[in-house]
């Protein structure tokens, strides 16, 4: 199951709504029934010597390919610009692709 971790200096008014919308949005890109999402907002983040809206995103998924990364980078940037008012040049998206043997789920590992 993919996991998206959002860190931002923007205060999100409705956490549940934000993470539900992002989960649904990302699930379409991943072609999965759901995506796990966490949010840390209202953080002290300086990006390019400015405290304007900014973000740091971590996307973790087993077997994520280059085409999905590119599409997800575009889609996430658009989503965050709309929801956080943070332009795509005000954040980074980091992709992590652990081997299934390094991911625990349902009391076992995925590989």
Write the layout of secondary structure elements.
Layout: E1 3-8, H1 15-30, E2 36-40, E3 55-60, H2 66-84, E4 91-96, E5 104-105, E6 108-109
Parallel strand pairs: 1-2, 3-4
Antiparallel strand pairs: 1-3, 5-6
Helix pairs in contact: 1-2
Q: What would you say this structure looks like, in words?
A:
This protein is of the alpha/beta class and 111 residues long. It has one domain (2-109): Macrophage Migration Inhibitory Factor. 32% of the residues lie in helices and 24% in strands. The protein contains two helices and six strands; from the N terminus they run βαββαβββ. The strands form two sheets. Strands 2-1-3-4 form a four-stranded mixed β-sheet, covered by helices on one side. Helix 1 runs antiparallel to helix 2 (66-84). The longest helix is centred in the C-terminal third of the chain and has 19 residues, at 66-84. The radius of gyration is 14 Å and the shape is globular. The model has no long low-confidence stretch (mean pLDDT 93). InterPro entries: Macrophage_inhib_fac, Tautomerase/MIF_sf. One of its GO terms (molecular function) is phenylpyruvate tautomerase activity. It catalyses: L-dopachrome = 5,6-dihydroxyindole-2-carboxylate; 3-phenylpyruvate = enol-phenylpyruvate. It is found in: Secreted.
The CATH topology corresponds to Macrophage Migration Inhibitory Factor
Total beta-strand segments: 6
What is the makeup of the main sheet? 4 strands, mixed
Helix content: 25-40%
CATH class: Alpha Beta
CATH architecture: 2-Layer Sandwich
Could you state the CATH homologous superfamily? Macrophage Migration Inhibitory Factor
SS-derived structural category: alpha/beta
Anisotropy-based shape:
globular
- Strand adjacency order, main sheet: 2-1-3-4
What is the radius of gyration? 14 Å
- Mean pLDDT, nearest integer? 93
Number of helices: 2
How many independent structural domains?
1
**Beta fraction:** 15-25%
Uncertain stretches of 5 or more adjacent residues = none
Report, as a whole number of angstroms, the end-to-end distance.
13 Å
